[in-house]
Design goal:
2 copies of one chain form a homodimer.
Chain A lengths: L5 E3 L5 H4 L6 H23 L4 H4 L7 H14 L2 E5 L6 H7 L8 E5 L4 H10 L5 E6 L6 H18 L1 H7 E5 L5 H9 L3 E3 L13 H9 L4 H17 L7 H16 L3 E6 L5 H15 L7 E4 L10 H6 L4 E8 L10 H7 L9 H18 L4 E6 L4 H21 L10 H19 L5
Parallel strand pairs in A: 2-3, 2-4, 4-5, 5-6, 7-8, 7-9, 9-10
Antiparallel strand pairs in A: 1-10
Helix pairs in contact in A: 2-12, 2-17, 4-10, 5-10, 5-13, 7-8, 11-17, 12-17, 13-17
Chain lengths: 437, 437
């Protein structure tokens, strides 16, 4: 059986790409630091001390998720997932893998009036269900969408129906979303208290939407467990892909000024995964003036958009290309037609052959231009693969943050913006007088 | 009547945001350089020397676009636009504004076998039309998708039907896509020879998909013309928003190390526009080791993903927030419900009120953290606004490139990757022997 995923960092090294790569010495310091951090965390992780990943080893909580999905699927053609940031991005990443979803899962992650209007106009509102997700239960965007859409559904179908058509995922305790759930008898699935939003993809937050979209959620967890075990089993930093990845990232930042980290999967279905990673890395590592900026890209699309800059612009990035086995997959170009068109090199090739050639060509081209590139390969983009990738990047992110002396689990700066928005609204409500009366 | 768009750079200045902003002196040098470049280009642009923008002043070419759209709309429920990079991103940006499209316009911009399979499974293939776009006529991804999908359509409906169901947009002359069009009698709209792919949004490349999606394409052009005239009318750099924007960008790069440029509209419908900008800027300015890295973001979504990094990470970015007038738009939260939930600050507020408060709060928060931010405001995100924004950013990009001594119209480095992919395929075809025979 092939490994669940593999990592190859040779394209980050000076002996492969020249002076812009890492020397053995430059990497060695970071390897040592990464191993120290990993060694200190390892036993704790193995004993469940990082619940965001060790929850993958559970299975007794999946029945509740499947039951909720089955109930919603019975009553709904469309389910809107109302949540922002970590309450949405992991679920979006997973749902992108559902080829023929039994339920149309939509994400309402922005209080944009135009988006809400289009959503309502594009669905049979009498067959819409809601999954409302907020860890704290007080997220302004989620609350506003919930407090406008739930009453609209109740107006149409009566108060009792909302209980059948909705689910709330929230921490235990008294909070606004919890109160709304209690008011209308909406079933609640508990958001684990010890798992932060951006680390919640393997909980019900990710898995309930995934189940609605038709994914095999046990396979997601199984892939996650396999990646976790691979990392935990490593006897040196070279055998712990997450720790080695963290070491390479920080060594490239420190010795080569690679202050941006581009994640570029060669699979449309992983485009939302790259945006999930973007939040994970940015909020976990970007603080106190530290951090690198994550950038999501997509192969082969961004060869025609960003590759010029990547190859020939400033030398300030590292690249992670996520590849899959594509040869022979997809529709085949007729040799006669390709020859007629004057594109003989495409004769007999499939779409997958082309995409496979492009992912190899991009890696080669980055190396030839002295741009550090690592490759992460999965056999095929499926449930197990995305579970594994999520665990890899959660472990890598936490390792990198601790190497920098940064707390990977807080996000102190965003509260400033939230408070400013809240004040503006409170002042507007006050000055408007009658509106809020 | 309000202006078509306004730009406010005060949040980039030291007297507003402190030491991380520009001093008057630092901006003055860039202003002078921008004015020199602009003055040299201005007369030429006014006389049609920058056809990507001056094409907006034409209207005689719109009838052919409308005719093609009408023909496809009659025969098709779904139209797949096959094109990559500049042959896709402008059209995607425009189509995002179509709220209730008469035809379901899809973009096939990647030879991903899984995507193609899902596309076929999700449509009535007998009612699918194709718009195939490649300036050179030789783009490998476009060719491969065209050479697999066109034969499939012909198998189903017979050879004559393709002429009714398809359009090709390509430069004149002998090239692979042109040969395929000739073979099956597919109508061709000429891609202007003097407009590069990433500058083609205001040509048929952008406007045919837009017309299919139900947009008022004359209004797109009218907004573009208004923005062009605004810029051409300026008597000093302060009255030429595109030149001033270029000056601020480069001054922030040079004096403050702002090597990333984040474009963050507060409108879901502008998310694809930000990706269009990302190509425009990256391919035009990112060469010879120069350039800044464009990053697309989305308000309010990325407040819950990237804002922590933006406020508290390294000081290496400038921000452009695109705002619109949102107050009072959208569904309103019942005061009674908000009070019951314990979120009185949302009482009587609409979704638009919340989004409006958030866009202001983000700008304030960036300023308070000393992060340079400019604001570009449109009255409302509509056809005229996006036409205007496209002209603004095309003019700004070209001005910035010339200030750096860079040719904004080539992309020399991407050919390396293309050649490598082509060689791999040719070798594979050779070694496979019989496959291509």
């Amino acid at each position: 059986m092939p490994e669940i995923y593999t990592q190859n960092i040779s394209g980050c090294m000076a002996d492969m790409i020249g002076d812009d790569g890492l020397t053995g010495d430059a990497l060695e310091m970071a390897r040592t630091a990464a191993w120290d951090v990993w060694s200190a965390m390892r036993a704790d992780i193995a004993e469940g001390g990082f619940p965001a990943v060790s929850i993958a080893q559970q299975s007794d909580d999946l029945a509740a998720v499947r039951d909720a999905a089955a109930r919603l699927s019975t009553h709904c053609d469309t389910v809107a997932v109302i949540g922002v940031g970590g309450s949405s991005l992991g679920a979006e990443a997973l749902c992108a893998l559902g080829p023929t979803p039994p339920v149309d899962v939509r994400f309402l992650n922005n209080p944009d009036p135009e988006t809400v209007a289009r959503f309502k106009a594009s669905v049979d509102f009498a067959r819409v269900g809601l999954v409302m997700v907020s860890k704290s239960g007080g997220t302004a965007e989620t609350l506003t969408l919930a407090m406008t859409l739930m009453p609209a559904l109740i107006d149409m179908r009566g108060g009792d129906a909302v209980a059948d058509y909705s689910v709330v995922i929230v921490e235990p305790g008294d909070n606004p979303i919890g109160r709304l759930a209690a008011r209308w008898g909406v079933p609640v699935i508990e958001h684990p208290v010890d798992i932060g939003g951006r680390y919640s993809a393997l909980t019900a937050v990710g898995l309930l939407p995934a189940a609605l979209a038709g994914l095999d959620i046990a396979a997601v967890r199984a892939g996650a467990v396999e990646a976790l075990e691979t990392n935990l089993a490593g006897k040196s930093v070279d055998d712990v892909p997450a720790a080695l990845g963290a070491a390479v990232s920080l060594a490239l930042l420190q010795s080569q000024g690679a202050r941006m980290s581009v994640l570029m999967p060669y699979a449309d279905a992983l485009a939302p995964f790259a945006r999930w990673y973007r939040q994970l890395w940015a909020e976990s590592v970007g603080k106190n003036g530290f951090g690198t900026t994550p950038i999501d890209a997509l192969g082969s699309v961004d060869q025609h958009s960003q590759l010029q800059l990547y190859l020939d612009g400033p030398r300030d990035k590292m690249f992670t290309i996520v590849t899959q086995q594509l040869d022979g997959r997809g529709d085949r170009v007729s040799p006669e037609l390709a020859t007629f068109a004057g594109a003989a090199y495409l004769a007999g090739q499939t779409t997958g052959d082309l995409l496979a050639a492009e992912q190899e060509a991009t890696i080669e081209s980055l190396c030839a231009h002295g741009r550090p590139v690592r490759r992460i390969e999965v056999p095929r983009v499926d449930e197990a693969a995305i579970g594994a990738l999520m665990v890899h990047f959660m472990l890598e992110t936490v390792t990198a943050a601790f190497m920098l002396g940064i707390d990977p689990f807080d996000q102190p700066a965003v509260d400033d913006g939230k408070e400013r928005a809240r004040q503006r609204l409170a002042e507007a409500a006050g000055s408007a007088g009658g509106v809020a009366a």
